[in-house]
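I am still learning, so can you show me any protein sequence you like together with the matching structure tokens, please?
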Amino acid sequence: MLNSKIVQKVGVDSSSDLSILAFLISIFLGILAESFVIFSIPLIVLELTSSPSYAGLAFMLEWVPAIIMYPIAGAIADKLGPKGALALSSLTRFLIITIAIFCIYKVEEKTLFIVLTCAFALSFLLPFSRVGAEKNVALLKENKNISIIHSYVQSSELLAWTLGPALAAFSSEYLDLIQLLSISGIVFLFSFLSIMLYRVQPNFQSETNDSNFFFGITYIFERKPLFYLAALNSLINFMFAVVISSHAAIITGVFELSEKYYGILNFIGGMFGFVNLLLVPILVKRMSMFSFSVVGLLLLGFGFVVLSLSTGYVIYVVGFSMSMMGISLFNIFNRTLRTSIIEQQYIGKVMGVFYLINIIMLPLGGGVIYIFADLIGNQPIIILSSVTLIPVCFFLSFKANKGFALK
């Protein structure tokens, strides 16, 4: 049974440390460029058209292909390996942006169409970076403390997702379209160069012949703890979708503040989560994996309740920051458990389905806000979903925790 109180210290040579650092830098730069683009393109489209509807279309085009591609990308990643999947993701996105810039220079009157096509094409590559990172961590679990490795990866991702939107909002005020796309392309290129410096672990195994397209679905359903974990992740993603979809309306409507406070909220919340992750190497020696889940869910639920009851911006930020701290702790349990259950040669195919199950909940949460927000308000929806679903999350966490006994 895997228990984070038992931490084995294994000596690692400096070249291996540098190789892992190259991997973490690649993850950070890839997601930094990704989040920069995801938040920049709707702003670009809004500036080009002055239409919120077109901006919404751009945001949709940035996510729909990713939802479709997750299972397919997982299967391809199992064949390419983690380095190949990450390299493919970064290099191809650099090339797509380069082609988009060239096309804008040549046919400027088609700029809107080019930008929307670029957003659509970039989205197809997003899943490769996720499953590639997950697959690489699985290779490291034999000679590193897996919980700490996951905390490093999650810190890289969270810091990138914190900085990306803030840089996008800042840059859109001072840079033109070509400059914004050029920055994104250059960062993707550096992400590619970083992953090329990474040395693949010798215990990598490619996909076995007995797996097929539906293998990931069967795999999850046959392993009950993994199934409970997938359900748990889905509920958490649904609650986050409800909260995130409500941010703009609450900040500009209830608090009557400008849109810049929306960016400040995300930055502060992300930084709290990032700082919290810095404590993981210390906490992992003193807490069991289940404790990470329990404490994380408590902070998550309490944070959602606080922001749903807040009547002022400061308390709202406090509540959101608590929820970000909670999800960062929960994800140590979440990522460690699924890595301990899934054999590394199946990581891509299984995680492709796992991510698909989770990401579908994001538009569902947004749909609930779209349908009911005008009737009862955003904050009542947040507290209702939190109070209803957090107890279910605790139950699913308890059931999923039994997965550590499988290894």
User: Anything to note?
Assistant: Residues 1-13 have pLDDT under 50 and may be disordered. The CA atoms of residues 19 and 198 lie 5 Å apart. The first helix runs from residue 14 to 49.
